[in-house]
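Run log, item B.
One chain of 167 residues. Sequence copied directly from the ordering sheet:
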Amino acid sequence: MAKPASVQNKIPVKESPKWLAFEYIMQKYGGVALIIIVCLGLLGLFSDGVLSSKRVSDPTHALSVKYEKMGRIDSDMNIKIETAATEENITLVLSGDLMEANEIKSLYPTAERMTSHNGELVLHYRVGALSGPFVVWLGVTPRQIGDHQYTLRSGDKSLNFNQFILP
């Protein structure tokens, strides 16, 4: 009876100590590493969650932004903008990578006038007399991977914030 081709081959198998050590470490600690990665993902390190949620405000807390610091491409995210209504009219200017790196899906409340020029999104609101802060919700979908820098201005107040978008 003829032997299979794998047995007839007289070339010895070369074993690399480096890869054998790597295999040993992965067998020993791979399960723990996998559990840690899954837990970090559930907490939101890689997308929407507790570790990713971020709030930035100016020193007087008259202008603030709540957003997801880390996100995934093609996943919907919300940006919540709060500003103290000190005047009857409010103008919000969003600039930086916002228009280039994201697709804007929703805006609530709808602006009375909205313009886009040189990568800036300008929202004009007529709010009248408000007892509390004025809140704008912006729904975006990231279209580019990487670290994106944004700037929000309202009157003389300005905020800088960034998002890191993963594939």
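Observations after the first pass:
- The helical segments are 5-8, 17-43, 98-101.
- The chain has a mean pLDDT of 87.
Flagged for discussion on Thursday.
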